[in-house]
Amino acid sequence: PMPPYGFGLVGCGMISRFHAAAIDAIPNAKLVAVNDVAEAAARRFGEEFGVGWHTDLDEMLARDDVDVVCVCTPSGFHRNAAVAAGDIGGWIPGPTTQSARPAFGVAGCR
């Protein structure tokens, strides 16, 4: 069997709970880390789901067990997290920007 893909979530707001539940339902997928600029939100989410929590995105992305990054920040803030994840070779599911122009920056990462 394939080893599980490790997922990191960026943003610990309301939508991230739906992503965490979806990850839990995927065979060979495991939530391993979360990130939020608000320490209390990151800590609460990490402790609730029993995963590592970070306030520094680069620190979370440097983890060896993060293979896939779900960007769960408000849509206007997707680009920076998506570029950072793309630069380390992480796979980013879903939309990364609200319009085409910022998407070019995401596509050009790495």
Which SSEs are present, and which pair or pack?
Layout: E1 5-10, H1 14-24, E2 29-35, H2 39-49, E3 52-54, H3 57-61, E4 68-71, H4 78-87, H5 100-107
Helix pairs in contact: 4-5
Short description:
The protein has helices at 14-24, 39-49, 57-61, 78-87, 100-107, and strands at residues 5-10, 29-35, 52-54, 68-71.
Primary descriptors:
globular; disordered C terminus; four-stranded parallel sheet; 110 residues
Describe it.
Helix content is 41%, strand content 18%. The protein is built from 5 helices and 4 strands; from the N terminus they run βαβαβαβαα. α1 (14-24) links the parallel β1 (5-10) and β2 (29-35). α4 packs parallel to α5. It starts with a strand and ends with a helix. Residues 95-110 have low confidence and may be disordered.
In percent, how helical is the residue content? Answer: 40-55%
What structural class do you assign from the helix and strand content?
Answer: alpha/beta
Low-confidence stretches: 95-110
Strand order of the largest sheet: 3-2-1-4
Order of helices and strands: EHEHEHEHH
Integer-rounded radius of gyration: 13 Å
Categorize the overall geometry. globular
